[in-house]
Structures are given as structure tokens and as C-alpha cells.
Specification:
260 residues; mainly alpha; 10 helices; 77% helix
Length: 260
């Protein structure tokens, strides 16, 4: 095995052990034993487990950052950008669960820049730039774009951490629901969110027809209620008129009853 191949082997083994036990729970002895080498080999390549851990974390950091950044830049429409970014994170989690587990652990002093917090900060910077452009286009106050960027990134990141263990529903469905909340807000949630624009259009058409039926039903109900109220008013008026006539007869017993 060449030196490069040995280095890659140690990185893969370290990645697995760090994901399972963390930096503090993993020893150089365990790494060397799993690789079938002596401890000095590990020290020779990385200077110790901290050096190995730092390289593993930085690799995962760069991999995930590149995936999300590419997703944000690969779409034109802003909803598509959000969809692709959420899906990129979930795909990374599904395909590299060990890497994601390492990233979300508390940062260690030997990891350099590759911590989950700094990763989210980098992604938020990309999102902030996109939001600032959108805010300007709609004449919103772009001073708030950093705050909105943190909100969006935080929502997706926390959902990813939750999904890491539950893995249900499927990643496309999770991404659709995340975007549903981020894009529509609580007051405008789509009952059946989807990443497929055609399915969304059909769902919107279905919702529109339901809204029309509901509006027509409400209008009929209002008309019936108005008719009942009018009939009740007529009855009340007729009753009041009869009572008035009776009162006049009582006041003037000899008076002939009026007709008409």
C-alpha cells in the first residue's frame, strides 16, 4: 500500500470511529488496530488523532458546503434555490451519515475552521447574498436579509439533524415540507407539498376549486339566512300589526273592526 493509499485508509477508518464515538472516545490504538498498522504510522501521517480528526472534519465541511452552494447557484427561481439546497443537505445526510454526525458534534480545538457552526455561517452568507438581491427587487429593507438568512438556514439545518436518526419520510418529502413552511408561511401552507411543479399546480387547481365550492356554499347559506331573517321580520311585523289592532279594539270596544 502506498503512502497515499494508507492515508486514505486511515481517514476512512477514523471517519467511522469518530462518527460512532467522537474524538475523545476514540484512541490512536483503536485507529491503528482497525487499519492493521502500528501507532507510529498514524503519528507519521497525521501527528496524532487530533490531526486525523481535523482532516476528516475539514473534508466533510468542504464537501457539504460545495453541495449546498452549488444547489443555491444552480437554480434561477428562488423557490427552486431553496428546494435544491434543502435536498442537497438531506442527500448528504443520507449518503454520508458518518460525516454529518462528525460535523454536528461539538467543535474541537483541533478541527480548524471545519465546524458545523462555521459551516452554517458560510451557507448563511450565501443565502444572505441571495436574499439581499430579492429584498432589493421587492423594495424591502435589505438590512434584515442576514436575519432571514439565519432563519432559513437554521430551519433546514435543525430539520436535517432530526432526520438523521428518524429517516422518515423520504428526503424529497422532507424537503418539500421544509420549503412549504419557508415559502408559504403557516397561514398559507399547502396541504400536499411537493418538489414537482406540475403536482403543485394540480394541487393549487384542486385547492382553487375547493375554495370556489366553499365560497358558493357560503353564499347560498348567506342567502338562505337572509331569506329566513326577512321572513322572520315579516312575521314579526304582521304580529305587531295584529297586536296593535287588538289594542285599538280593546281601547274602543264599540268601534267597528277595521278591514284591509
Amino acid at each position: 500500500m502506498t503512502g497515499k493509499e494508507r492515508r486514505e485508509q486511515l481517514l476512512e477508518i477514523g471517519r467511522t470511529l469518530f462518527a460512532e464515538r467522537g474524538l475523545d472516545g476514540t484512541s490512536v490504538e483503536e485507529i491503528a488496530s482497525a487499519a492493521g498498522v502500528s501507532k507510529p504510522v498514524v503519528y507519521e501521517h497525521f501527528g496524532g488523532k487530533e490531526g486525523l480528526y481535523a482532516v476528516v472534519v475539514d473534508r466533510e465541511f468542504e464537501k457539504l458546503l460545495a453541495l449546498v452552494t452549488e444547489a443555491l447557484n444552480s437554480a434561477i427561481h428562488y423557490r427552486s434555490k431553496l428546494e435544491k439546497a434543502a435536498l442537497a443537505l438531506l442527500e448528504y445526510i443520507e449518503e454520508s451519515p458518518d460525516g454529518f454526525r462528525i460535523l454536528v458534534r461539538d467543535s474541537h480545538g483541533g478541527t480548524g475552521t471545519g465546524s458545523y457552526a462555521s459551516l452554517l455561517s458560510e451557507i448563511a452568507g450565501e443565502v444572505e447574498h441571495i436574499l439581499a438581491q430579492e429584498f432589493d427587487r421587492h423594495e424591502y429593507d435589505d438590512r434584515f436579509s442576514p436575519m432571514y438568512a439565519q432563519m432559513l438556514v437554521g430551519m433546514v439545518a435543525l430539520t436535517g439533524q432530526w432526520w438523521l436518526d428518524v429517516r422518515k419520510p423520504k428526503r424529497e418529502e422532507v424537503a418539500a415540507h421544509v420549503v412549504n413552511l419557508a415559502w408559504n408561511g403557516l397561514s398559507g401552507l399547502e396541504p400536499r407539498p411537493s418538489l414537482d411543479p406540475r403536482r403543485r399546480r394540480k394541487e393549487l387547481e384542486r385547492m382553487g376549486k375547493r375554495a370556489e365550492k366553499a365560497a358558493a356554499k357560503a353564499e347560498k347559506a348567506e342567502e338562505k339566512a337572509a331569506a329566513r331573517a326577512e321572513k322572520a321580520e315579516e312575521k314579526a311585523a304582521a304580529k305587531a300589526e295584529r297586536a296593535e289592532r287588538k289594542g285599538r279594539r280593546d281601547d274602543f270596544p264599540g268601534a267597528a273592526p277595521t278591514t284591509g
